[in-house]
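Hey, resending since the last one bounced:
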Amino acid sequence: MYTFKNTEINNKKASDFETKSMLYLLGMRSDSDEIEIITVDCFNDVTGVNDDFSKLWDVQSKNHSSLPPSKIGESLSTLYDNYVSSISFFDYILFIPKLNRDYLIDKSLNVYKFGNINSKQKQGIEKKLKEKINGNKSGKTPPLFIDFLSQVTFIEDNKKISTYIKRISKFKNTKTVSEEIYDRIFNEIRDAQSSLKNSYIENENISHPSEVLGFNRHITKAVINTLLINRLVGIDIFSFPGVPIPFISFIAGKDDEGIKDLLQECNENLSRAFFDKNGCKEFWKLSEMIIRIIKSNVEASVSDIYGQLESTMQIKTTYLTPETLKYMISLIKTGLDNVG
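The structure tokens again:
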């Protein structure tokens, strides 16, 4: 049995840092491809999970302006709690600002284990962590204490916001996207992440990690990728300049006026579907499905993808006509040429 403790609603500064730690999980690790779900303020600040919940990456993020050894020790307590809990976590990560270089043996590292911290600072960290775990100043060594410290990975935040977005989007044409756009995307992801904390789950119990989904405090990689594609690739999704190459075969035989009318109709239909209160959800569902089909088979033609959509879901939004859907597929295919 696992009990959720110390869940809270944080301030903007903390939320920004938690979003960075989430994006770190999704795009900056060698095993980032395995992480499909992020839980928010459940097991810890953020926790990455693979598709079958057999692997969990646990992250405590602390954006203190100063991190003396006592603060570091205090910050490690929730990771320790998870280390000795009924759930096994694959990695225990403390995501922090850049530490005082005098604390470290190898000062060039931004990712390191406890062994890279100097003896004097280690003592201060251990002292405070023991106090936090024991609830007193007895100095008693808690169970698995040394084992736990050897497992913690320290990650220092030393990158710009845009870098975190670029690493998960793998957007090739980075020069065409301003820092302002990256900041807006980051803020949108942060706000979506923060909104998940509005529910109250303190002292709730689960028997298996997958049961956390029932609390609706999670966001999927697919949702974030779709947001990114529609903000980066889809910046012109409603007003694409010209004809997307995959759509050219569908305008063959039309004169200039006919092409102009068709493109205008498709763009208007996409806008109506997106901004329609009842059709918006279907628009996003279709976007996710198109992206998934293209990523599973980059050689699939627009007609093939359209056929798969027709066979797998009933399209109810009247604005999403066959021509509009083929145009939408063409836009996404064109956009994904710029995504790794």
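The radius of gyration is 24 Å.

Sorry for the duplicate.
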